[in-house]
Amino acid sequence: MKPETPRPVHLKDYRPPGYLIDKVDLDVCLDATRTRVRSRLAVRPNPDASGRRQALRLDGEHLELDEIKLDRKPLSKKDYNLTDTSLTLAKTPAAPFTLEIVTFVNPEANKALQGLYRTNDVYCTQCEAEGFRRITYFLDRPDALATYTVRIEADPREAPVLLSNGNLLERGTLAGGKRHYAVWRDPFPKPCYLFALVGGDLSPIASTFRTMSGRTVDLAIYVEHGKEERAAWAMDSLKRAMRWDEVRFGREYDLDVFNIVAVSDFNMGAMENKGLNVFNDRLILASPETATDTIFEAIESVVAHEYFHNWTGNRITCRDWFQLCLKEGLTVFRDQEFSGDERSATVQRILDVRRLKTHQFAEDAGPLAHPVRPETYIEINNFYTPTVYEKGAEVVRMLQTLLGRELFRSGMDLYFDRHDGEAATVEEFVRCFEDASGTDLTQFRLWYAQAGTPELVCALRYDKAKKRAELDVEQVLPATPGQAHKKPMHIPLKLGLLGANGHDVSLKLDSGEEPADGTLSVTKRKQTFRFVDVPSRPVPSLLRDFSAPVNVTIDLSDRDVELLMANDSDLFNRWQAANSFAMRTLVEIVGLLAKGKSASRGARYAKALGAAVLSDELEPAYRAELLKLPTQADIARVIGKNVDPALIHRAHKRLSGLIGRTLGAQLADLYAAMAEDGPFSPDATSAGRRALRNAALTLLTARASGPDLARLSKHYFKASNMTDRAQALFLLAAHGGKAGEQALADFHDRWKGDHVVIDAWFAAQAQSPLAGTLKRVEALTHHPLFALTAPNKVRALIGTFAAANPVQFNRPDGAGYAFIANHVLELDRLNPQIAARMLGAFRSWRALETGRRGQARKALQRVARAKNLSSDVQEIVSKMLEA
Ligand code: BES
Ligand code: ZN
After folding, report:
1. DSSP code at position 358
2. 390 lines ligand 1 (CB under 6 A)
3. 128 CB less than 6 Å from ligand 1?
4. Which of 629, 682, 783, 795 has its CA 20 to 30 Å from the CA of residue 473?
5. pLDDT tens-digit readout, 217-252
6. Which atom of ligand 1 is closest in space to residue 298's alpha carbon?
7. What is the pLDDT, as a whole number, of residue 473?
């Protein structure tokens, strides 16, 4: 697509821009196939740019240049050099000057969904990371900050709503009502990736927010006509997020308006454009009948995330894209803390750690491993990864753990104070915590530079005579692409020691020191911590609250694990104990199945689980998490090599069935006790009861008896909300048969008119482990409601098959791999960003057993050999095949 071979960008090559653009005036005349963009730029040479004056090189792609004027004088072709990706002026004045550029773009033809495009007849933009260059020629880099005034003109019948960043200055009609316009001005300097514009026939729900200093902000969420009521939860979430940021971080909103627009076709979840967030509509629209609790929860957290970017990302932005974790990791940390405060902190931590391990640990263990702050990239869109996001958030969390909440807050205050209005670096961020706390974070900085998941190999010795317990800790730092050898890191290890009665023994080191909050600093490759006054052999509870993104190994007996499951004062670690008990049972079953042995294991685990789940002091949402087995992908990651997904699937099924049978009576009681007939409420407590009830249902269903199936069908047809209905639909689709087909047919008939809800129907079929699934998914790609140009459809059907159906994606005949490879190639011609993401399904291919590994390699090689690959797919596929 890009005619020039993409070249890697290196962090070490960073130079400040040679020119500054202080002011941008845009005049956009919307037209479906020929939108005119007139841009007037106030430019001056950058006094901070070293060396002789450079040529002014502006980025631009897929643009039709109409005219250029420098200080009002038209330029001719010999005054500039035009390529497919740039516009360069060789000679520019030494003093400030004005550049006027007129370009045309075709929104209708834009299927990459970057720059200006149309979705459901709505004009909208997506500029992060490098989409602004598809709207006009510009310095498309995050350290070029300007203030924007934007005039939008359109046909009022087609686009009665005209929005851009900042505050509305003026609006009016033209040509006797045939055209109309709006002028928006954003007083805050921003990089162009935060620019946004929307034009369309949308309907707002409005509200207001009074900030802590008493200003009133007008809030609006724009949705499709008729969907207004479904935006109420998003609005409620927004107001709670605004208040939370004031209370927890002292951050107040800065403009007079805050707008959100929901669109149907969007590459990502949502985007934090200044004062005009744009959302994938599946993360705005929710009602009890149409959205699951998981969606309600996701809406709350994504609305908060994008709002929180106003300070962490917008007011303080990134100097360059290598600093992406500066805004994303930090903002994920903030949204996690928000969700933890709004809901259950422990359950939130469990969900966040689960996600981290499933996605980030898997990425870190494969060919796509990279540091939280990468040092080189070809296509920046490929670096919006679990490592930058989730591990990036963990690194910020470790700062909070190491410094304590108070000093952490002082560091954040200093950061906001010192860097407001700037494009900052990770280095500057960390410096704020050093300066605020007086702590040396030199070694801690390695978290940003070294890839791979550290392993803490631990052993505990007890000396009864001396009443001493010694904990040996060794850091094992696995090699990752380009990083063979690593330095020891600074790892906060929060722990407790449980006495025989299950209570915590007080922690005293032989130095006399009592580790603050039970947190040790592991800093050496090998280290021993000696605890004194330990009355009896203790059971260690390590990595409480998941204090660092590492793997811990320690030899614990079943009895030790049971003690932790029943007593650990750290509820997160109680769950962790249950989860690792399940994991080791599953790995054992897989091993036995591989040897062709009958695998009746798990009775002991099931019993311990029963005891833990029945405890009424624990909240239902937490008990639901206890009942969820590790996923098949997690089991594969822990096994690590020669992975046979079919065996893992069988092991998973066996253990679920065993739990269902062992705890049948208790689970049936829970299923009955957690039923609710009152009106639906999306709050965390009600959602927790539904989660526990559905988790019980899932395990009961695993017994696969006639009455179990009848209960499941009833659960589907009698459901009064989407949480229950979708859970039953997925289980029924996995079961297949008449009951499965009936539920799928019913769901289709109910929701075929709703493009958001119908995605669950595509996904339910794509995740079914039944043998006929691939054929069915193939057929569904021709279904009238499916479209390759709609990312949500692609994700629901093809993405679910690749990422959430381990048995059928990993068919031994390689047909699953071939299917995904074909679609990656087809998608690459439309939307490279989505195509490259789909290829991520292969990220653990090297860990497969030989047969499947060979099939996966063949599929990847076929992709690699294809002509005219985008730089997005090219970069991912070559990394996958390297090394
Ligand atoms: N800034 C991103 C959106 C984005 C990502 C734009 C990649 C361009 C390329 C936004 O803040 C974000 O992170 N969105 C996430 C959801 C969030 C809650 C983690 C997303 O879209 O998945
Ligand atoms: Zn973000």
Report:
1. I
2. no
3. yes
4. 629
5. 999 999 999 999 999 999 999 999 999 999 999 999
6. 18
7. 98
Kindly give the number of the ligand 1 atom that is closest to the alpha carbon of 384: 7
Q: Please report the pLDDT score of residue 625 as a whole number.
A: 98
Task: Give the mutation target among 271, 299, 321, 348 for probing the ligand 1 site: most ligand atoms within 8 A of CB.
Answer: 271
Peptide bond into 129 cis (omega under 30): yes
| CB of residue 384 inside a 6 A radius of ligand 1 | yes
Q: What angle do CA 407, 546, 640 make, to 5 degrees?
A: 140
State whether the beta carbon of 282 lies less than 6 angstroms from ligand 1.
no
Instruction: Supply the pLDDT for residue 4.
Output: 52
Residues 743-779: tens digit of each pLDDT: 999 999 999 999 999 999 999 999 999 999 999 999 9
End-to-end CA distance of the chain: 27
Helix (H) or strand (E) holding 488: none
Judged by phi (left if over 0) then psi (alpha if -120 to 50, else beta), residue 732 lies in: alpha
User: What pLDDT is attached to residue 616?
Assistant: 87
Q: Return the exposure string of 336-352: e unless at least 16 CB atoms fall within 10 Å of the residue's CB, then b.
A: bbbbbebbbbbbbbbbb
Enter the pTM of the model: 0.98
**How remote is the CA of residue 331 from the centroid of ligand 2, in Å?**
6
Residue in the structure block whose two tokens are 């060919």: 367
Query: What integer pLDDT is reported at residue 2 of this predicted model?
Result: 42
Distance CA 684, CA 343 (A): 6
Q: Which residues are catalytic?
A: 306
Nearest to 169 by CA among 154, 152, 191: 152
CB 356 within 8 A of CB 390: yes
The pLDDT confidence band at residue 635, using thresholds 50, 70 and 90, is very high
- Ligand 2 centroid vs 277 CA: distance in angstroms? 11
Residue among 608, 590, 607 nearest 599 (CA): 590
Q: How far is the CA of 870 from the centre of ligand 1 (A)?
A: 21
Q: DSSP H helical segments within 343-425, as ranges?
A: 345-355, 362-364, 386, 392-403, 405-419
pLDDT at 227: 98
Asked if residue 25 lies in contact with residue 19, where contact means CB atoms within 8 angstroms, the answer is: no
SS3 48: coil
* Ligand 1, pocket-test mutation among 140, 299, 384, 831, most atoms within 8 A of CB: 384
pLDDT over threshold 50, residue 3: no
- The CB of 731 under 6 Å from ligand 1? The reply is no
For residue 332, report the distance from its CA to the centre of ligand 2, in Å.
7
The single residue listed with the structure tokens 């789940």 is 613
* pLDDT tens, position by position, 337-372: 999 999 999 999 999 999 999 999 999 999 999 999
Tokens 């690959």 -> residue: 869
Mean pLDDT of 705-717: 97
- Please name which ligand lies nearest the alpha carbon of 237: 1
Give 58's strand partners: 87
CA–CA separation, 238 and 703 (whole Å): 43
Residue ranges of E strands in 201-275: 203-210, 216-223, 257-263, 270-271
Instruction: Flag whether pLDDT at 877 surpasses 60.
Output: yes
Joined together, the tokens standing for residue 380 give 């920046």
Closest CA to 31 of 121, 150, 164, 145: 121
Q: Is 522 exposed, middle or buried (0-12, 13-18, 19+ CB in 10 A)?
A: buried
* Distance in angstroms (rounded) separating the CA atoms of residues 255 and 249: 18
- Nearest bound ligand to CA 191? 1
